């Protein structure tokens, strides 16, 4: 029997990392989807909504909205193709058969409402801020990603960080991780997770390693002098001098952080 790749990770942690593909790849669901001829049409509130094609009228298509059952006519150019259900909550959106705006937004939304905040888009990792603490930054989760290739584990900022770290060791060249987004998107918090991961894997001795699962370092730890505590203590100092309040974020970073590995 093959080793469980998620051994050591609790069910509570795993539910925020991966989905059971066996439940998604249900043949009956696939057949039902094919019979409905579903597409995406514009929606004033949600951006796009699912609808089934009822009839064709040249440049216009009459569709029935799945959620309400209402029949409407939309221009053919405003419709977008929908992916089969087997692509629901896909980890890398580059794998989508129909790669369009509606399908990308639906996949991100679908994963987000399932507690999956990390999604790959080719070489990029898209993160949707959950605005709450998730149990996916513990030492057990770090061990899950340490030394693994990106396709072997679920999407996570730890996977991106480990790739950069291993490339630095192998190629002997500096590596960069760019966190970009609007105010309140979670750039600073994910930067902290990058530092947390690097501090953990770079620590010389696990026996003397204190927990880095919680970034709030106590005054008792200040004199330890370990690499992880030095790194994690640096960020609050920068925040004290460079942060400001914005409409979406009471603690928005207003300084440029360059962390060289």
Largest sheet: 5 strands, antiparallel
Question: How would you sum up the global shape?
Answer: globular
Beta-strand residue fraction: 15-25%
Number of strands: 9
- Radius of gyration, in angstroms, nearest whole number: 22 Å
Order of helices and strands: HHHEEEEEHEEHHHHEE
- For the biggest β-sheet, the strand order reads 4-3-2-1-5
Oligomeric status: single chain
Describe this structure in a few short sentences.
With 261 residues, this protein is α+β, with helices and mostly antiparallel strands. It is 32% helix and 16% strand.
Can you tell me about this structure?
With 261 residues, the protein is α+β, with helices and mostly antiparallel strands. Helices cover 32% and strands 16% of the residues. It contains eight helices and nine strands. The chain has helices at residues 11-14, 21-24, 27-36, 101-112, 139-145, 157-171, 187-202, 227-242, and strands at 38-43, 47-57, 60-65, 71-75, 80-81, 118-121, 124-127, 243-244, 252-253. The model is unreliable at 204-209, 216-225 and 256-261 (pLDDT under 50).
């Amino acid at each position: 029997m093959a080793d469980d790749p998620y051994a050591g990770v609790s069910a509570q942690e795993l539910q925020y990392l991966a989905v059971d593909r066996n439940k998604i790849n249900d043949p009956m669901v696939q057949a039902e989807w094919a019979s409905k001829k579903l597409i995406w049409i514009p929606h004033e509130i949600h951006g796009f909504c699912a609808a089934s094609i009822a009839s064709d009228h040249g440049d216009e298509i009459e569709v029935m909205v799945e959620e309400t059952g209402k029949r409407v006519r939309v221009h053919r150019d405003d419709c977008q193709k929908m992916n089969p259900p087997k692509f629901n909550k896909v980890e890398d959106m580059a794998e989508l058969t129909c790669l369009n705006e509606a399908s990308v937004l639906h996949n991100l939304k679908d994963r987000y409402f399932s507690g999956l905040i990390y999604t790959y888009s080719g070489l990029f990792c898209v993160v949707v801020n959950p605005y709450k603490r998730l149990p996916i930054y513990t030492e057990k989760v770090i061990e899950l990603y340490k030394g693994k290739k990106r396709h072997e584990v679920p999407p996570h900022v730890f996977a991106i960080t480990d790739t950069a770290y291993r490339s630095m060791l192998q190629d002997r060249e500096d590596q960069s991780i760019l966190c970009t987004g609007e105010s309140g998107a979670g750039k600073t918090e994910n930067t902290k997770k990058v530092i947390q991961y690097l501090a953990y894997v770079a620590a010389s001795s696990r026996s003397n390693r204190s927990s880095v699962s919680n970034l709030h370092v106590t005054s008792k730890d200040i004199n330890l002098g370990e690499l992880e505590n030095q790194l994690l203590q640096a960020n609050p100092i920068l925040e004290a001098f460079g942060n400001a309040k914005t409409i979406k974020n009471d603690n928005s970073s207003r300084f440029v952080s360059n962390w060289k590995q």
